[in-house]
């Protein structure tokens, strides 16, 4: 679990966006685009899906939070073969 958080330091929020790489079939997006067309919303040219993870790290500065988010991506949140990942800090 790690060391207890340092209550004197603020937490740092990071957004991790995980989306499919170009060329990987996005069946959910295809289904949504088809359903929107059936609902009469047909002007949509392209639909893509993505998962967004909002991570908040206690007592971590921006650099450390981004490093920890990268570790979470590598170990759990994304498959580098099919996913494209963007990590960005979030300000309050």
Can I get a quick summary?
This protein has 92 residues and is α+β, with helices and mostly antiparallel strands. It contains two helices and three strands; from the N terminus they run E-H-E-H-E.
CATH superfamily: Phosphoribosylformylglycinamidine synthase subunit PurS
Largest sheet: 3 strands, antiparallel
Number of helices: 2
Text of the CATH class: Alpha Beta
Distance between the termini: 26 Å
Structural class: alpha+beta
CATH topology: Mth169, Chain: A
Spatial order of strands in the largest sheet = 2-1-3
Radius of gyration: 18 Å
Which stretches are low in confidence, meaning pLDDT under 50 for 5 or more residues running? Answer: none
CATH architecture: 2-Layer Sandwich
Shape: elongated
Helix content: 25-40%
| Total beta-strand segments | 3
From N to C, what is the helix and strand string?
Answer: EHEHE
Rounded mean pLDDT is 92
Q: How much of the residues is beta strand, in percent?
A: 25-35%
Tell me what the structure shows.
The protein is α+β, with helices and mostly antiparallel strands and 92 residues long. The chain has a single domain, classed as 2-Layer Sandwich (Mth169, Chain: A), CATH 3.30.1280. Helix content is 30%, strand content 27%. It contains two helices and three strands; from the N terminus they run E-H-E-H-E. A three-stranded antiparallel sheet has the order 2-1-3, with helices on one face. The longest helix is centred in the C-terminal third of the chain and has 16 residues. The chain is elongated.
């Amino acid at each position: 679990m790690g060391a207890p958080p340092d209550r004197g330091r603020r937490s740092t929020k990071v957004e991790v966006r995980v989306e499919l790489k170009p060329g990987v079939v996005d069946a959910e997006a295809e289904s949504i685009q088809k359903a929107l067309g059936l609902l009469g919303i047909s002007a949509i040219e392209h639909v893509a899906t993505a998962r967004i993870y909002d991570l908040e790290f206690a007592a971590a500065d921006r650099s450390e939070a981004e490093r920890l988010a990268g570790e979470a991506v590598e170990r759990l949140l994304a498959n580098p073969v099919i996913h494209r990942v963007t990590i960005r800090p979030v300000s309050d």
